[in-house]
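Hello Y.,

Per our agreement to keep a running log of every chain we model this quarter, I'm adding this entry. I've kept the format consistent with earlier entries: sequence first, then predicted structure.
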Amino acid sequence: MAARSQMALSLGFHIIFSCIGMVMPFFMAVSHFLWLRKGEQVYQNITRAWSKGVAIFFATGAVSGTVLSFELGLLWPTFMKHAGPIFGMPFSLEGTAFFIEAIALGFYLYGWKRFNRWFHWVTGLVVGISGLTSGILVVAANSWMNSPTGFELVNGSYINIDPIKAMFNPAWFSQALHMCIAAFAATGFAVAGVHALMVWRRRNVDFHMRSFKIAAIFGVIAALLQPISGDISAKMVAKRQPAKLAAMEAHFKTEPYSPLILGGIPDEKNRKVNYAIELPGMLSFLVYDNFKTPVKGLDQIPQQDHPPVTVTHFAFQIMVGLGMAMMALGVIYLLAIWKKRNWFNKGWFLKLFIAATPIGFIAVEAGWTVTEVGRQPWIIQGVMRTADAVTPMPGIHYSFYLFTVVYFTLSIVVIFLLYRQIKMVPVIYDVKPKKLHTN
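Predicted structure for the entry above:
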């Protein structure tokens, strides 16, 4: 349990750093492009401010990612012994992408007035592309754990290894697509929320309003696209991991017109869900495009292979609920652009985005809980159990306590640096701000 808790803690922190590191460079590239095209100083100031944020999250992401790479070997030696040669390729390529990202970031941070203006912009774009590539490669490795391919297991030995087939396993595209869109949605709403707060407080309004609009449009588009990737992912989970889907939906009984369950509290002992809203046939339709086709329930899966239903179901409901909230806020934002531009100066509109600042990352954490907890008791789906892969080293709980302190300290440092960065934002125009409506 200590090993699993430590891995969960490490992943929980790293995924926030990595999501922001993957996405923020694209915000930076857009503001830089607008400066090059329009020549307005405010866009250069936004770009410089965001570039420092990118550097902060690159550094913290590198530290937390390095810790994770060591933990794989220290906490899960049996897993790495057998799985390393199979899915090691995406990790190796991720290292290459990381070094390209580091070089490009160095060029970008120190290239102001030293490089050709458009070449300098390209280096910033490379930071984003290589960071996104790194994320996709790591997700490809994780998707292999959910859909293991590219080898044969004969008498306990892994033979005929094909690392290319392992990397491009059946689940890699759906999982990578869902994760990348989630990263854009979470980071977009988080960054937009911070700038909305500054606008609401009337601090450097022009700077923060333009920043808000760039970040928000990324988050809104991603939030509106996410249900498409979610549908693709759910169909893949139904095909490759029926126990996970059954746990996500707290679907205990295989039957025609399988219902979609909204909310509710699973009762695993009595195999039912209390206080839930059931939509008959909707789960069958979402999985098979047919209202009548039965969806495999937990009653057709051996008890020893059941995931923790309550945790998986709650995490899934949180992810979907917050995703729907971001979609609704996205619709409001698009309406403001097309028909109600005066909403941008209204307090209630800004407060919606301020309140939405953390929800994208809460949804991301919930989604990864579904991915990892929903796969249990397997570390490699159908091949190796988590209990067989963990380290036998005693006293591992001390390591968990140590890393808990390290990660919380790292988070405090990041928050301090970002707060200081926001405080250092220059005053763009020395004008009296317009009064906000408070309704």
